[in-house]
Each structure stands twice: as structure tokens, then as C-alpha cells.
């Protein structure tokens, strides 16, 4: 980068053209400072290169005086720049031409100002050299600007245009991918919908056929029974005693036939099998729509009801973490009819009787736990199955014990195939469809789902016998 140190200073009469050429060559091969630095005086001359305007470099004696061989200052013009020249101004103090430039005070001066005036000892430069350097600076700046303009134009015409074309191609591929995925999902959904609807239709026709068969059978039995009864009544009221006694055999046969008709009874064959509408695909899509859709449900205020917490558990201050106590506490909590006294259970603080609700429990630290729902009327006292989650008709839970996962209700366990150990387990309760669903939030994988008619509001229910579990918000 060129600085004022690169400018050669000489006296007013003997400054050689070779010095100017060396300065120009240096200006051409070095990186140039910004023009703003030049114009604000960012360049400084080296003091050792400064030449007093009154010093002679040719033959003859030194010192200024009438006998000096140095020529007097002359008017200087910037003919080397090839742009334009300016007439030199006159120093007010010395009435001499301002053909020098003081780099220290950043102003034009005359030779006398530099030798005996206020700028004596300052870094001074011939005005012509200074002008040449500044013009060279401007030329370099303009060239840089031109190169920058070319780069910008190239960026606009090539880079941005290429980016635009690439963007259009990528956006088109992304749209095609979305459409393809939606089309595949729609096709699979339509096929599954058709299959399930046909299964429901077949089940409906089966039940209707059973109902028709039962109706025909029992209608015929009713008619036969009515006819037999009418005959027996007629025999009882219109037959003479002697004849009645001799008709005992006939009467017994009719009574035996009437007794063989039997009593009608309701059976499961006369009901629609609820499993006919079961579909893993539909259930998974439905759950994903609720859990991942724009209107995802969640119970952000769900906590444990401290009144229900068993003495075998400790409850955190934020009422969200249950920890199993390895040793029984010395002092039992005060008696509360809502508290479990034998099983390590605790219930949630909010009941569900409408809408859709979901909550997530962190189970990563526990190897034995139960998560689910129960009726508020669940027994709280004693060590019987009435207060044991999953072992009565009032609770539905997902259980883990010894790396075995199962669904428990009314004392019946359904083993669950879990591919990987869940760190979190979510519960989704959709009241309108009477569906309870357990899922893994990280992959939104449905672990188990059950549809059952719930007769009363449900409370979140948990149990833990290993370390701790936490309700996440």
C-alpha cells in the first residue's frame, strides 16, 4: 500500500525525473490506500526523505543567497497526469508560488514557508509529485471500483441467476415430493378406509342375519308356545273330569314340548364386534394428527395430587416427580381418605370427561412403573387388588417390570412388543371416541390402544417402585 513515505521529496529546481518515475512505479506496483485516507491526510512523508526547498543538489556552493546557483522557484503544472493543470497560487506571507505541499499540516506552501517559515522541519513534498500521487490513487480507486462493479455484475448475472434456477428446481422437487407423499398416504388411507368399511359392513350383515334368525326362531317358538298354552287352557276348562284323567299322557307331551322351547338369552353374537373397525394405520394417523397436528392437545398444567401420594413415594416441590422410597418413612403422613396407604400409587390433579387430552411422563430413570388412568372411585386403602392399578375394572395402565411391558386392566395383562426402551411415554385420552392410547413421543409410535365405554370421569394414575418418574410439560 502506497504511503506518503513512498513520495520522493526534492528541492524546487533539481528534483530529477528519475525520482518521479521511481515514485510512479512504486505507486503502480504497490497496493493503494483508500482514497479517503489520502484526502484526509492519511499519508505521511518520511522525515529522512524530506528535502529543503533551498538546498541545491547540483554543483556550486550551498546556502541560499544571491550567489547561489539554484534557480528560483517556478510555476509547476501537473503535465505528467495528462488530465489537467492548475495555475499555482501565491503565498500571502512570502508572495511566492504555492508549489509545495506540507504533509504535516496538510496544506499548500511556498518554498520559503518550508525553509524559513512555519513549516520548517515538516515533511514537505513538491506539489507536482503530490498531485501525481493523488491522481494515481484516484486511478487505482476507479480501477478497483470498476473491478468491483464487474464482480457485482457477474454475481447478479451468473451466481444469482444460477441460484434462482437451482431454487426453482429444488422447490419443484420439494413440491413433487410432498405431493407424492400425500398421494401415497391418501391412496393407502383410501384403501384402508375401504377395507375397514367393508369389514364393518360384513360384521353388520352378520349381526343382522343373526338377529333375523333369532327373530324367526323365537317368533316360531312363541307361536308354538302360545298354541300349546291355548290348547291346554281349553283342555282345562272344557274337558270333563273322566276325560281329563285319561288325557294325562297327551297333556304331558304338550307340557314337555313347551318346556323344550327354552328361554331366550342375549349373546355376544348379537352385538357388533368393536374390533371390526380396528386399523393400525388409521389409528396411527389419527394419533399423529392429534399429537403432531396444528391443534395438538396437551395438559400443560397437569400435576400430581399430593393428597393421593402413597407414603412409599416422595413428591417433588413442583408436584411433578414421584420417587420411590427404598426405606419406609419413620413418620407416616396424616390420614387422608384420598391417600393410597399400601400400593405406591398417585393420581393426577385434573380429571378428564370431555375433549382430547395428552400428557407425557419421563420414565428413563425407572425400571418398574405403571402409567394410565382410573376412576376417581378407585379404592385407596388396603393391599388388595381393589387399590392395585391394572388389577381391577376401574383402572387401565401400561406397565413395565423387569424389561417386560404390558397393558393391564381388570387383572388381565396383554404383553406389548416394544422395539426399544422408551425414555418417555405419552398417554392420549380421546373422550368423544372413548379411546385410550399409549405412545412413544420421540417416534410417535403407538404402543397400545383400547376403545372402551368409560362410565365416569378419569384421572391420570401412576405407580413407581424403582427410582423416579416425572410428568413433563
UniProtKB/TrEMBL annotation:
Keyword Coiled coil: yes
Gene Ontology MF term list: zinc ion binding
Residues annotated as transmembrane: none
The B30.2/SPRY domain, residue ranges: 281-473
A matching Pfam family: zf-B_box
Keyword Repeat: no
Alphabetical keyword list: Coiled coil, Metal-binding, Zinc, Zinc-finger
Chain ranges of the B box-type domain: 86-127
Organism this protein belongs to: Austrofundulus limnaeus (Annual killifish)
Annotated Polar residues bias: 69-80
Gly residues compositional bias, start-end: 56-68
SMART domains, sorted: PRY, SPRY
Region (Disordered): 45-80
Ranges in a coiled coil: 157-206
Name of the protein: B box and SPRY domain-containing protein
Amino acid at each position: 500500500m502506497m504511503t506518503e513515505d513512498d513520495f520522493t521529496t526534492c528541492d524546487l529546481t533539481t528534483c530529477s525525473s528519475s525520482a518521479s518515475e521511481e515514485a510512479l512505479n512504486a505507486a503502480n506496483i504497490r497496493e493503494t490506500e483508500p482514497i479517503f485516507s489520502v484526502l484526509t491526510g492519511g499519508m505521511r512523508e518520511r522525515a529522512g526523505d524530506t528535502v529543503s526547498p533551498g538546498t541545491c543538489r547540483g554543483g556550486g556552493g550551498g546556502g541560499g543567497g544571491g550567489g547561489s546557483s539554484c534557480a528560483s522557484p517556478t510555476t509547476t503544472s501537473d503535465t505528467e497526469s495528462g488530465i489537467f493543470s492548475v495555475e499555482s497560487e501565491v503565498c500571502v506571507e512570502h508572495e511566492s508560488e504555492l508549489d509545495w505541499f506540507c504533509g504535516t499540516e496538510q496544506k499548500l506552501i511556498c518554498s520559503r514557508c518550508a525553509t524559513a517559515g512555519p513549516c520548517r522541519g515538516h515533511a514537505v513534498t513538491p506539489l507536482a509529485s503530490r498531485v501525481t500521487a493523488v491522481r494515481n490513487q484516484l486511478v487505482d480507486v476507479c480501477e478497483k471500483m470498476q473491478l468491483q462493479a464487474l464482480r457485482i455484475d457477474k454475481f447478479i448475472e451468473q451466481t444469482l441467476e444460477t441460484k434462482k434456477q437451482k431454487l426453482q428446481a429444488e422447490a419443484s422437487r420439494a413440491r413433487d415430493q410432498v405431493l407424492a407423499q400425500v398421494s401415497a398416504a391418501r391412496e393407502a388411507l383410501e384403501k384402508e378406509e375401504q377395507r375397514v368399511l367393508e369389514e364393518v359392513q360384513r360384521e353388520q350383515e352378520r349381526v343382522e342375519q343373526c338377529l333375523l334368525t333369532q327373530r324367526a326362531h323365537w317368533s316360531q317358538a312363541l307361536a308354538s308356545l302360545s298354541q300349546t298354552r291355548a290348547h291346554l287352557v281349553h283342555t282345562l276348562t272344557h274337558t270333563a273330569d273322566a276325560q281329563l284323567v285319561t288325557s294325562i299322557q297327551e297333556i304331558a307331551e304338550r307340557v314337555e314340548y313347551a318346556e323344550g322351547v327354552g328361554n331366550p338369552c342375549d349373546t355376544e353374537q348379537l352385538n357388533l364386534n368393536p374390533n371390526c373397525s380396528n386399523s393400525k394405520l388409521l389409528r396411527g394417523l389419527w394419533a399423529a394428527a392429534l399429537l403432531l397436528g396444528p391443534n395438538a392437545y396437551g395438559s400443560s398444567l397437569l400435576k400430581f395430587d399430593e393428597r393421593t401420594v402413597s407414603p412409599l413415594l416422595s413428591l417433588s416441590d413442583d408436584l411433578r416427580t414421584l420417587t420411590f422410597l427404598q426405606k419406609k418413612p419413620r413418620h407416616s403422613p396424616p390420614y387422608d381418605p384420598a391417600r393410597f396407604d399400601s400400593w405406591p400409587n398417585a393420581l393426577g390433579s385434573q380429571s378428564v370427561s370431555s375433549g382430547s387430552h395428552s400428557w407425557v411422563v419421563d420414565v428413563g430413570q425407572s425400571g418398574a412403573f405403571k402409567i394410565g388412568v382410573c376412576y376417581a372411585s378407585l379404592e385407596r386403602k388396603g393391599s388388595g387388588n381393589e387399590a392395585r392399578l391394572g388389577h381391577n375394572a376401574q383402572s387401565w395402565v401400561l406397565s413395565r417390570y423387569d424389561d417386560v411391558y404390558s397393558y393391564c386392566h381388570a387383572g388381565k395383562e396383554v404383553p406389548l412388543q416394544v422395539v426399544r426402551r422408551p425414555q418417555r411415554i405419552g398417554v392420549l385420552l380421546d373422550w368423544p371416541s372413548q379411546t385410550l392410547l399409549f405412545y412413544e413421543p420421540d417416534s410417535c409410535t403407538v404402543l397400545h390402544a383400547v376403545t372402551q365405554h368409560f362410565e365416569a370421569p378419569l384421572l391420570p394414575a401412576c405407580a413407581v417402585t424403582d427410582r423416579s418418574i416425572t410428568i413433563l410439560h
